[in-house]
Design a protein that fits this description.
20% helix, two-stranded antiparallel ribbon, 9 strands, five-stranded mixed sheet, alpha/beta
Length: 174
């Protein structure tokens, strides 16, 4: 695909569960701290971050919906995004149903097969502490909160998942 850099580009792969967004344009300009530009300012270098949302990965030999292929679709999305983006982040739900060990084995298999560093953010079907443990992500206060340094800034990841709840929330300390 040839992406138009003046817009937010969304690539939909075979599964409706995976959406890839390349958000590159809106940022606060350092030369004018009180204005937000929708066009690229010449004083700001360009940073591309690919966000893949809600892959709902199943465990090995499990199927989410008949004929669905979330594992294959996520692999394709990561491979494609990594060609163009400085960082690739998957925002939850990583797990299809309940954050089981088998589901995270499926996520691990995808990430290992792609050979690309991928940042993770928990969703309401995920277990934040399991993700920290199984994927070596260093969180804060039992949550999957962390900062990833980019060449031109920082990506701040905040975990809004709350155990036993379907909704999310940020705490005062976040």
């Amino acid at each position: 695909h040839d992406f138009d850099d003046s817009t937010v580009t969304q690539v939909r792969l075979l599964s409706r569960c995976i959406a890839l967004r390349l958000a590159t344009r809106t940022r606060v300009c350092a030369c004018s701290l009180y204005s937000t530009h929708t066009r690229m300012c010449s004083c700001m270098p360009r940073t591309v971050i690919a966000q893949i949302s809600d892959p709902h990965i199943v465990g090995p030999h499990d199927e989410l919906f008949e004929g669905s292929d979330p594992v294959g679709n996520l692999s394709k999305a990561i491979t494609h995004a990594a060609q163009r983006a400085e960082a690739v982040i998957i925002t939850g739900d990583l797990a299809a149903r309940a954050g089981t060990d088998a589901e995270y084995q499926g996520v691990r298999a995808v990430l290992d097969s792609c050979g690309v560093d991928v940042l993770l953010c928990a969703g309401n079907h995920d277990e934040s502490q399991k993700i920290q443990s199984l994927f070596g992500v260093q969180g804060r206060n039992g949550r999957l909160d962390y900062v990833h340094e980019l060449s031109q800034g920082r990506l701040v990841v905040l975990d809004s998942a709350r155990a036993g709840r379907g909704d999310g929330a940020l705490d005062v300390d976040q």
